[in-house]
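Our consortium's second objective concerns turning raw sequence data into structural hypotheses that experimental partners can test. To show how far this objective has progressed, the report includes one record in full. It was chosen at random from the queue rather than selected for favorable results. The single chain below, 122 residues long, was entered without modification.
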Amino acid sequence: MRWMIFAFLGTLGASTTAHAQQMSPSWLVGTWTVISDEDHTPPDFADFTVDGKYINHGFNCSIRAEMSFHIYNGDIYVTAEISGKGPIAMVFRPSSDKKTMSYTSPRTHNNAVMAQVKTPCN
C-alpha cells in the first residue's frame, strides 16, 4: 500500500512538472497591441513568451509588469499579484482564427480587442 502511495505521488509530481514546462502555442508567442477599446484607454503592448510570461509595455516601451499566464479551455489567463492585496486575473479569449483576442473589463464591462504586431520596441 505504501509503495502505491509513493508511486501515485511520483506520477503526480511528474505530471505537474511536465505541465509547468509546457510551451506556449506558436500563434500566441509575440507582441500584441490593442486595436479597439470601448473604454478609449491609450493602447499599450504586451509580449507573450514561449515560457509562459506576459510582459506589459507602456508607450515608451518600458516594461510596466511581468506576469505569468496559463491557458485553460482555450482562454488565456494572466495572473497579476497586487502588492499587499492578492491576485487578480485578466482573461483573453482568442478568436477562432487566433488572429485577435478579446478582453472584457470586469470593472466597466467594456471590451477591448488585441492583435499581434511586429515588435514596436526594437
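The partners drew two points from this record. The helical segments are 2-20. Confidence is low (pLDDT under 50) at residues 1-21. Both points have been shared with the crystallography group to help prioritize constructs.
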